[in-house]
Specification:
Elements: E1 10-13, E2 20-28, H1 32-36, E3 40-42, E4 55-62, E5 68-77, E6 88-95, H2 97-109, E7 113-114, H3 119-126, H4 132-143, H5 147-157, H6 160-184, H7 192-224, E8 226-231, H8 238-246, E9 264-270, E10 273-279, H9 290-305, E11 308-314, H10 321-329, E12 335-341, H11 351-358, E13 364-365, H12 374-389, H13 399-420, H14 425-443, H15 449-457
Parallel strand pairs: 1-7, 8-10, 8-11, 11-12, 12-13
Antiparallel strand pairs: 1-2, 2-6, 3-4, 4-5, 5-6, 9-10
Helix pairs in contact: 4-5, 6-7, 6-14, 7-13, 13-14
The protein binds guanosine-5'-triphosphate and magnesium ion.
Magnesium ion binds next to helix 8.
Length: 463
């Protein structure tokens, strides 16, 4: 992307394309008021350029020939109290495709530039309204697919991660200042209590960084969805349960075994978690048909990736070797919830024998047709996901964050090692400075245009 001019005035439609109650066209830059003024006739005939900050005007938007385009509300924000930190005008018009295009077209024809994706937020970052992790949280907020991911994004946008990172940076700066003070007076030997104080500071910062890195995997899962897979021998009702959980007829169901061959995946929200639910082919010990073999290979691949496995048996037939075989295929590290399906039919499963086989995995009785037992199933799934994802503490959300923290940690470890070996402090401070720089890259105090291009390219136009 060519280097952006951040002083010119930009505009874009900020609401989704299509029809709606209202739509908003956002204009930002030092020329925002001058750009809109000729086309806005306020109801009280006051000049838009006289409008005080944080006020709303009602009036007509007209084209260059002074023909009416729409009745609009114009919200006026002035430097620095706006989203971008520049003068901003937001034109709220009726939410129609032609109206928004027309208003935007009028502004663009008069020298306003069409905003690049994420350019409003990029300006907000460059004007110090947000740090880089908060700018990323804006994107996460828009893309959040469940209450949990929404929660993380809103906390990050409110600055909770920024505060934690600031504390870490401050601690590093204090340590650096401390060392530099001793550098200036080389004749003074470090006293024992100063030595141990610095050691503690090193350890403290490293522990906090480690805990942030550990939180990354959990966060990824929350953002990108946890994989929950239905497995069982053929015909136990996996696809029926899949459809019932989704509340729609997604998978083929029949009383013939081997109906499902390819794994099917659909997303749904379960108790605030974004879940990727997968239906798989029935598992058997010796598939004869090559297609059954292929379906089984895929099911086994899915099993390995899963976070939670729903192990389904048919309660209307006795528990048998074929069910045992399926259970043995589930990797040991997986969380398993056992389901006895078809509870509407007379039970032929030896409950005691089945429970003894499962050990501590107490089964749930289900009916895919009436959704009986589904409340308990959802609760148990959420419980498993909770264990896998909840842990107190601040959370990072991107590989970029993790890499920056890892770089800081590595530099800190080097610095502490040199310090412990009682090397001259001159050899310790460069690594400390490197750790601090990595932290500053994370929050965006140090950045490159290329990095901003990558981050903001993910945004939609108008944000
Ligand atoms: N009575 C009753 N029948 C069910 C229930 N769940 C599924 N079935 C029936 O059991 C048969 C098999 O259901 P499917 O959902 O296709 O089973 P599956 O495990 O996906 O089978 P494969 O894809 O072949 O491995 C169908 O005839 C369903 O209507 C249930 O809770 N009660
Ligand atoms: Mg099926």
């Amino acid at each position: 992307m060519p280097k952006l001019d951040l002083d010119d005035t930009i505009a874009a439609i900020a609401t989704p394309n299509g029809e709606g109650g209202i739509a908003v066209i956002r204009v930002s830059g030092s020329g925002a008021f001058e750009a809109v003024e000729p086309f806005f006739v306020s109801q009280d005939h006051e000049k838009l350029s006289d409008a005080p900050a944080n006020t709303i005007r009602w009036g007509k938007f007209v084209d260059p020939a002074q023909l009416l385009v729409d009745q609009v509300l114009v919200s006026c924000f002035r430097v620095p109290r706006s989203y971008t930190g520049q003068d901003v005008i937001e034109i709220s018009c009726h939410g129609g495709f032609a109206i928004t295009r027309k208003i935007l077209g009028v502004l663009l024809s008069k020298g306003v530039r069409h905003a690049e994706p994420g350019e409003f937020t990029r300006r907000a970052f460059l004007n110090g309204k947000l740090d880089l992790t908060q700018a990323e949280a804006v994107l996460d907020l828009i893309h959040a697919k469940s209450d949990r991911s929404l929660d993380i994004a809103i906390r990050q946008l409110s600055g909770s991660l920024s505060r934690t990172l600031k504390e870490l940076k401050d601690a590093l700066m204090r340590l650096l200042a401390h060392m530099e003070a001793y550098l200036d007076f080389p004749e003074e030997n470090l006293e024992v209590n100063v030595q141990s104080g610095m050691q503690d500071q090193f350890t403290n910062v490293q522990e906090k960084i480690c805990s942030l890195i550990a939180g990354f995997e959990r966060n990824q899962l929350i953002r990108e969805g946890l994989l929950v897979t239905l497995v069982g021998k053929p015909n136990v009702g996996k696809s029926s349960l899949f459809n019932a959980l989704l509340e729609r007829d997604r998978a083929l169901v029949s009383d013939l075994p081997h109906t499902t061959r390819d794994p099917l995946e659909e997303a749904l929200e379960i108790r605030g978690f974004y879940v990727r639910l997968r239906d798989t082919a029935g598992l058997i010990s010796e598939p004869e048909h090559p297609l059954d073999k292929m379906g089984m290979d895929r099911a086994l691949g899915t099993l390995r990736e899963s976070h939670v496995v729903l192990y389904v048996v048919d309660g209307s037939v006795p528990f048998e070797e074929a069910d045992r075989h399926v259970f043995q295929l589930i990797p040991e590290d997986k969380k398993v919830i056992a389901l006895v399906n078809k509870s509407d039919l007379s039970s032929r499963i030896e409950t005691k024998e089945f429970e003894a086989f499962l050990g501590d995995k107490f089964p749930i009785r289900l009916n895919a047709k009436t959704r009986e037992g589904f409340g308990e199933l959802e609760e148990r799934i959420a419980g498993c996901l909770e264990q896998g994802t909840s842990e107190a503490g601040e959370q990072i959300t991107r590989l970029r964050h993790k890499k920056a923290l890892e770089a800081a940690l590595e530099a800190l470890r080097r610095a502490q090692q040199s310090f412990q070996m009682k090397m001259s402090l001159e050899f310790v401070t460069p690594d400390l400075r490197a750790a601090l720089e990595a932290m500053k890259e994370l929050t965006g105090e140090i950045y490159s245009e290329d990095l901003l291009d990558v981050i903001f390219a993910e945004f939609c136009i108008g944000k």
